[in-house]
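[step 3/7] fold_predict: job queued, chain A
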Amino acid sequence: MFQQSALGTSTPFGGARTSTSSKDIEVVSPPEDSISSMAFSPAALQQNFLVAGSWDNNVRCWEVEQTGNTVPKSMQNMDGPVLDVCWTDDGTKVMMASCDKQVKCWDLASNQTIQVAQHDAPVKTCHWIKSPTYSCLMTGSWDKTLKFWDMRSANPIMTINLPERCYGAAVDYPMAVVITAGRHLIVYQLEGKPQEFTRGETNLKYQHRCVAIMRDKKNSPTGYAVGSVEGRVAVQYVHPTQPSDNFTFKCHRVNCANNTYQEIYAVNDIAFHPVHNTVATVGSDGTYSFWDKDSRIKLGSSEQKDQSITRCCFNHNGQIFAYALSYDWSKGHEHYNPQKKNSIFLLPCFEDMKPRSKSSS
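[step 4/7] structure written:
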């Protein structure tokens, strides 16, 4: 198990590397308010495109060139802060979920948008589902519902009531995982038609903040990782072979006053590498860390940034890691500094995310 101590210690992880910012490339023309969501284009597109949603009500799209330089391509506006974005599997459209209780579909070729989903409260999540027999949009809202849309009708094809407000979701067909207020976690199976599979449990004692689905060596979804406001991540398998397969580890904590106490920060986002199945976490402490969950080794971490890291994602082949610097309001309005700009950085990550054996660390 990961050593239950602050990340700053190298003892349990055998000399984890510290990444430098020299390789990080800053995205030009960043959002003007806190960055709530990011997503790279799917493998269907030859080029890499990045979209990001923000509390400034906008969704921006950049092309990422082979050099790593970014070119702003377009921007669309919603009538409220944007809480989530996702791509369709063919890379032609982007879904945008907003506090205005709507989800709009942005057709990139025509640069036009159309409303495709509606809730009774802000829409927290949107995910595109591509199965062998159907395609649809899944939306989760603070109105305590999960809805599925085929986008040809103003009404959802299915509505599932949630025990509380949706705080986050992850989709990797045929699995979906939804986290809600009250530390509820529900796993859904999407084959045939979406339906509840199980109510998950974790050892996390504080509010769930983010969730991501992990795959096994056969590249099938096998479980999930959940991050909490208490600087802790739970790794859970849907069908663990033994109880010790499921575990939690501490992260995004800072040792203070000669290690006499720790400052604890929220885990804001989790992303699994699409090739290595190692995992990245980002937090309110302003750092990102890379982990090998199978060997339970920390692969490396960044130096502390001057703002929280709110979101992260990998591009489709795992060559690029993107992370967003924004104020996440975890310290209240009195610590908001409008002089600090919002930023997105890109980092070549394929080698840094490779698994390492304990003996080589």
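[step 5/7] annotate
Residues 202-328+340-355 form a domain with the Methylamine Dehydrogenase; Chain H fold (CATH 2.130.10.10).
Residues 1-21 have pLDDT under 50 and may be disordered.
exit 0
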